[in-house]
Amino acid sequence: MFCIFESGEKELIQLKNVEKIYQTENGSVHALNDVSLEINEGEIFGIIGYSGAGKSTLIRLINLLEKPTSGTISIGDRQLTDLSDRQLREERRTIGMIFQHFNLLWSRTVAENIAFPLELTKIKKKQKEKRIADLIRMVGLEGKESAYPSQLSGGQKQRVGIARALANNPRVLLCDEATSALDPKTTDSILSLLLEINKSLGLTIVLITHEMSVIQKICSKVAVLDKGKIVEEGAVNDVFAHPKQPITQEFVGAHAANKVKHSGDTLAISDWTRVRIRSVDARLIQRHLSSLFGREHLLVRVLETYAVQDGSAEETIVAIQGPAEEIDSALSGVKSDGLETEVIHAYV
Ligand SMILES: Nc1ncnc2c1ncn2[C@@H]1O[C@H](COP(=O)(O)OP(=O)(O)OP(=O)(O)O)[C@@H](O)[C@H]1O
């Protein structure tokens, strides 16, 4: 049975004034510019940005696969930038990583892939076998122990990647676009697994993505990276509700438009006002939806309802048609009860 760890406010990862400059034949590339970040223990922290923003560089700096040009990186009370190569190898065992293209060993079975990081430790054979069996159970791959990666679906391959990353009981899991190669349904199942692992093991997760939906589904905090700089950062709820920077507004807008596009809605979109309603109390949303449906001059359709982050709030997107003053008055009623509402302007 899983036990639940609550994320605390204890800082675990700290990046201070980090710069990364790559030297290339065509000159230098300033990939990260004065980046400072603090990530708390037990948190799921998302870093979002467009291609070339510096996300991969940033996540690879956290386990020092890339060395910063200047600045410091620490995990717990250890400053990684001060460690010798041997100490760093040791420290890396406490940091697992999963990748967009899984990085599995194709000539090894599922069990042998998961065993790989354990081969570098002094663990006894019996213990190793038990650990592998536990990990396979944890990621839901029972029965696939002897399969080869080529015989697995994308989602199953990523489950192997997750089990392998967890083999040495890391404190931190780094996810490098871990769901970008997966379809939406498989993405959901992998994100649910990550959330479950975060809750049950108290594991701190740092992920990079270009998709706001990934951030929204599992992260509690988000940092927006643009041209090597963090331009906005905060609790996902706040950043979603009140995006300040144009790039953040773009991510949030595109996400909302995407939701409408995928909602299966066949309405004449332009005739309808689309509103996002958010509350920490799902019953309150339901109550207000009932009252919206009961209004004589309004047509109301629920396009989508979903939990945000780890289920601490719920959002519903509704389409409403009717006289503008009726819509305004209905939404004032919703707002006066403390629910957040936002008219979504970014249509398909
Ligand atoms: N090894 C390298 N040598 C030289 N330049 C690099 C290297 N790695 C990354 N860069 C450059 O640094 C910048 C940031 O790249 P990075 O891969 O970190 O961005 P990203 O946000 O992860 O992009 P993507 O999502 O496309 O992978 C880019 O201009 C890239 O060309």
TrEMBL record:
GO annotation (BP), single: amino acid transport
The organism of origin for this protein: Sporolactobacillus laevolacticus DSM 442
Matching CDD domains: ABC_MetN_methionine_transporter
Similarity comment: family membership: Belongs to the ABC transporter superfamily.
Gene Ontology cellular-component annotations: plasma membrane
Protein name: Methionine ABC transporter ATP-binding protein
Gene3D superfamilies attached to this UniProt entry: P-loop containing nucleotide triphosphate hydrolases
Keyword Membrane part of the UniProt annotation: yes
Keyword terms: Amino-acid transport, ATP-binding, Cell membrane, Membrane, Nucleotide-binding, Translocase, Transport
Domain ABC transporter, residue spans: 13-252
GO MF entries: ATP binding; ATP hydrolysis activity
Lineage top rank: taxon: Bacteria
UniProt cross-references to Pfam families, sorted A to Z: ABC_tran (PF00005)
